[in-house]
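Could you help me review a protein record that somebody else here produced? Do not assume that whoever made the record got everything right. The record follows directly below this note.
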Amino acid sequence: MDSKHYTNKELEAMTEADLEGLIIRKEANVDDVRYILGKLMIEGTSDKVAKNENKGLNWLKEAVKAGHAAAFEYKTYWDIRFDKQPKLQKIKDNLLKIIETTKSPRACNTLAELNHASAGSDLVKNNPEVQEAGQLARDNAAKYYMISAEQGDVIGNHWMGVFYHEGYGVSKNIKKAVEHLSVAAAAGNG
């Protein structure tokens, strides 16, 4: 049977039975349908699909196994927010895969933020190993915020402006700081 292409908006307007039917009959990209069905079940925002977090997670996992990028990103953020024992290294690895696949500004910003938070403080200046790890974290924070900024993302531009102003993970450069902060301000960043 021929597979029809549906937009996410069209899929989100369908009933649970209709979506499951598309999967069974393979009348659409089943991984797109699994992703939308899983997302709707987890969020409980549709009047046509019953909220069922466990079943929704199972649909998402099926789409993730098949390599569906949006499902993989959604599941990673679910893990960050709701996993009872989130595995930080697994989350970082997943964010890296998302960035490699889609260059998602959200994933770039999240990975940058994790590096920024783990860079350490001035309190550890006397420990060379901690200093080295801190510098690597600062460099990585700048790297991922820059990828985000290059896509015009307001958060990436804000932080690159701050980083260039302070020389944090990049060489201090007031001209570049002003450029990035101006882009962020023009996009509505206070």
About this structure: The radius of gyration is 20 Å. Residues 95-190 form one domain. The mean pLDDT is 92.
